[in-house]
Amino acid sequence: MRFINHMRLQFDARPENESFARVAISAFTVHLNPTLDVLSDLRTAVSEAVTNAIVHAYGEKGGQIILEAAIREDALLLLSVRDYGCGIENIDRAMQPFFTTQPEKERSGMGFSVMQSFMDSVQVTSSPGEGTCVQMEKKLLATAPQQ
User: Is 72 a catalytic residue?
Assistant: First the structure.
């Protein structure tokens, strides 16, 4: 399948950049005229992935987050949010609802569950000490406009 559009953004792992990522994914997909519900789903899933990187991967030390998105000619949106932080030791455990490594900070442990509920597919790869990549897919339209 051929891509009709692709973008890659790199930004600091700072709380204020979570909203930047939400706006960026909205702007990237708006030309396909998604419904408000689909747009909200995309924004929320990206927000959760970016927030996880900010809070869990880097914490106070900071680092870089890479957001990539591509739209295939069949209107499938491919997203990835990558960090080079602490990584996840047990992905299966981390993806369980209500699991959190920071209960003292009143974290709900629902980030991955939220992503899974709003996207068609969510895959997480991670290596302790090397970082994490969250890859998500969402079908946007029956067919994408030809370019």
Answer: no
Is residue 33 flagged as an active site residue?
no
Q: What is the pTM of this model?
A: 0.85
CA-based nearest residue to 144, from 81, 67, 42, 70: 70
Where are the chain's structural domains? 3-139
Q: Right CATH number for 3-139 from 3.30.540.10, 1.20.1250.20, 3.30.450.40, 3.30.565.10?
A: 3.30.565.10
pLDDT at res. 58 = 92
Q: Per this entry, what is the length of the chain? A: 147
**What is the tens place of the pLDDT at every residue in 94-115?**
666 655 665 555 555 567 788 8
List 52, 82, 106, 130, catalytic entry: 52
